[in-house]
Amino acid sequence: MQTPFKLSLSAQDIACERGGRTLFRNLDFAVEPGQALLVSGPNGAGKTSLLRQLAGLLPLAGGRLVTDGADADTPIAELSHYVGHLNAAKTAFTVRENLAFWADFLAEGQGDPADHLAGALAAFGLGELGRLPAGLLSAGQKRKLALSRLFAAPRPLWLLDEPSVSLDVASVKKLDGAMRDHLKAGGIAVVSTHVPLETKFTHTLDLGLERAA
Amino acid sequence: MNAALALLARDVKLAWREGGAVGVALGFYLVVIVITPLGLGPDLNLLGRIAPGILWVGLLLAGLLSAGRIFDNDYEDGTLDVLAAGPLPLSVVAGVKCLAHWLATGIPLVLIAPLLALLLNLPMGSVPSLMLAMLAGTPAVSFLAGIGASLTLGLRRSGLLLALLVVPLYVPVLIFGVSAVTPYVTGPNSLWPPFLILCALSLASMVLAPLASAAAIRNALR
Amino acid sequence: MISLANPTRFLGLVDKVLPWLSALVVILLGTGLYLSFFVAPPDYQQGETVRIMFIHVPAAWLAMFGYTVIAIAALGTLIWRHPLADVAAKTAAPIGATFTFVALVTGSLWGKPMWGTYWVWDARLTSMLVLFLLYLGLIALWQSIDELGRAGRAAAILALVGAINIPIIKFSVDWWNTLHQPASVFRTGGPTIDPALLTPLFVMAAGFTALFVLLHLMAMRAEILRRRVRALQQTQVERAALAEA
């Protein structure tokens, strides 16, 4: 379904500071193509901050992030999909318009946006809701709309912050399936979640332990 | 290029769809123009003389009122996070969004200005130069407002603060905007020097303001 | 310079400098005021009111100086990420705004006998007024953002935007003024200044500058200490949170 990715990502000695507080430091991990990293820890340990650092939204307070297998000039932000707590969906747009914009905007120069749009509408079964305004969707459907963005453009690194919030059991299964396919295609995923997923995480990182140490 | 066009089209569409943002700005402009003669008295000679100034001040206020939404809605719902990770540099994203504000709000404001000029007894001969000056000056209005909008992202009372930050920056636009119209009203001065300066102000803000906005957005997202 | 980068070293230096600087301010301002009020002759045209200039001109000069300090410190915040740069900019803003206000008040006091009214939309006074608005915006932005780092960077961006705009605003206000009023009426000092008036002016300018530096150093010291208290309170909260867990 996708071209095989061959991106690997490693964090070397990275640190994070928020409002003068050090959330974590001396953090190391390495994720190879097809591998997934589970980030856990208590509230306020810095799970969201770590994901935002990987997405290029929050600067590192120390250390560095290294990618291998991609253009050295491409910032990690452009190699990754960040799905945070907020759904980034426009209530005044229909489901289809929302995803069509992301396909046009994010997948520039990466094939036909129409194909990506079709894939994104199909991924979480939002196709039949396509003509409805996103403002009418339930919380779970809005979450699915946010996750469908993962298919609006092919990107090797998925950064998912509590992706399963408000999803029903069937949708969590779909998410698991999507992750499995993504990893099979050589993609990598960094996920923070409280709900156990079926996806086999090759690495885990407990920020609570890091902090106590 | 496609990404920039997609963003531009999206923002213009949203401006017309999301809660009638454009309509509110136009209505606000009308209200400002209507209450001014009520405060000054119905002396048509006086109104005709000060009409360019009132029309410009009203336009700046209406532009400011609608400026918050250039970035705020996208900040609130997380869209800005994703836009920042797109293929465009953030300064281009900021510039395109300000351009969309100009197209969706600035131009409609300019288009109703002649109608409002009738209420203020602006001489008919001045209307073309009024519209020309406003078309040349409103890009600066949108792009400078973008700086204020990006600096006040997610703050309490952001609308009032935005006005306090941006109004001093509007001083040159206001002065040259009114000067470009007044020669017809008061005397023989040429329209062109203030008009050309307005163009320069707009071009300079289109180049420089997105850089400031992008830095401010980065700062707000972290 | 590197030794100054450390806030603790900076505080030590401030403690050493302050007594000397205070003495300098007292001497300069004392001499300057004496020269301004008792030695300088009254102007043949403006009479005794010319003495207001000895306050007004240095205050106006420091109003610009204050903004320059903020703009340079803004570069320090954004480019070199120097921890003291934001402290310097944040504390310079209220001081600069106060000098701007003094310049506006003395300008309007001078205007009453000269122009017969307290406020005239004279080009210089109007530019000063816009500068005052820029100061107010900066101070308001600092106060609206709780997180110190974000507030500092946002204010730095605004300060640089303002610095680029100040010459343009000045130019446009001058243009506007000549368009609406004949320029000759509003020449403040006249084309030539008597040397007898020049000496007190320079002494007062030096005294005001020293006063600015003194106030700024004291305000920076207070701000550094305030931030330390805040950091200590934060660690206290964190310890309490860890103890609960």
Strand content of chain B is under 5%
Mean pLDDT of chain C: 86
How far apart the termini of chain C lie comes to 44 Å
Largest inter-chain interface?
A: B-C, 29 and 28 residues
Residue-averaged pLDDT of chain B: 91
Oligomerization state: heterotrimer
Largest sheet geometry of chain B: none
Tell me the distance between the termini of chain B.
27 Å
- In total, the number of strands of chain B is 0
DSSP strand tally of chain C: 0
**Major β-sheet profile of chain C:** none
Summing up helix and strand content along with how strands pair, one would put the structural category of chain B as mainly alpha
Structural overview:
The complex is a heterotrimer of chains A (213), B (222) and C (245). Chain A is α/β, with parallel strands linked by helices and 213 residues long. Helix content of chain A is 31%, strand content 24%. Chain A has one domain (8-212): P-loop containing nucleotide triphosphate hydrolases (Rossmann fold, 3-Layer(aba) Sandwich), CATH 3.40.50.300. Chain A has 7 helices and 8 strands; from the N terminus they run E-E-E-H-E-H-E-H-H-H-E-H-E-E-H. In chain A, strand 1 (8-18) and strand 2 form a beta hairpin. Chain B has 222 residues and is mainly α. Chain B is globular and about 55 Å long. By secondary structure, chain C is mainly alpha-helical. The model of chain C is unreliable at 182-191 (pLDDT under 50). The termini of chain C are far apart. Chain C contains 6 helices and no strands. The longest helix of chain C is centred in the C-terminal third of the chain and has 50 residues, at 195-244. Chain C has one domain (3-182, 198-244). Chains in contact: A-B, A-C, B-C. Chains B and C meet through helix 8, helix 9 and helix 10 of B and helix 4 and helix 5 of C. Chain A: Keywords: ATP-binding, Cytochrome c-type biogenesis, Membrane, Nucleotide-binding, Translocase, Transport. Chain A: Residues 9-213 form the ABC transporter domain. Chain A: It comes from Methyloceanibacter superfactus. Chain A: It holds the Pfam family ABC_tran.
